[in-house]
Amino acid sequence: MQLTGRDNYAEATQQLRRRHADTPDFEVEPESVAGADWCLAVAAAAWAAKGCNALADQDDVRAVTRRINNGDTGLAERIEWTRRACLVWRQD
């Protein structure tokens, strides 16, 4: 999980503190975001806050990428990794 900008660290702190009172202040302790205790929770909170589930359910990798990155950075790689993941999770 990568956060950029002080506002995103503050937003992550606010989102997680709604459910986890012990969430560190990520603005003060930005390294905590990448730690094992918080990285998944931060990523899941950002995913949910940006409404990515509905887009992922529609297999819209481009729209998910735009929600997360505000652009198409890394789109080709995401499409390829999504294709690979679908091969693993495909139900016959």
Structural features, described:
Residues 1-15 have a biased composition (Polar residues). Residues 1-27 are annotated as: Disordered. The protein is mainly alpha-helical and 92 residues long. The chain folds into 2 domains: 1-49; 53-92, no CATH class. The protein contains 5 helices and no strands. It has helices at residues 6-17, 39-49, 52-57, 61-69, 75-89. α1 crosses α2. The longest helix is centred in the last third of the chain and has 15 residues, at 75-89. The mean pLDDT is 90.
What is shown here, in short?
The protein has 92 residues and is mainly α.
Assembly level: single chain
Derived structural class: mainly alpha
Beta-strand content bin? under 5%
Strand tally: 0
Fraction of residues in helix:
55-70%
- What spatial form do the alpha-carbon principal axes imply? elongated
- Main beta-sheet annotation: none
Gyration radius from CA atoms, angstroms: 15 Å
Overall mean pLDDT stands at 90
Q: What letter string, H or E per element, gives the SSE order?
A: HHHHH
Total number of helical segments? 5
Tell me the span between the first and last alpha carbons: 32 Å
Q: How many separate structural domains?
A: 2
Low-confidence stretches: none
Region (Disordered): 1-27
Biased composition (Polar residues): 1-15
List the helices and strands and how they pair.
Blueprint: H1 6-17, H2 39-49, H3 52-57, H4 61-69, H5 75-89
Helix pairs in contact: 1-2
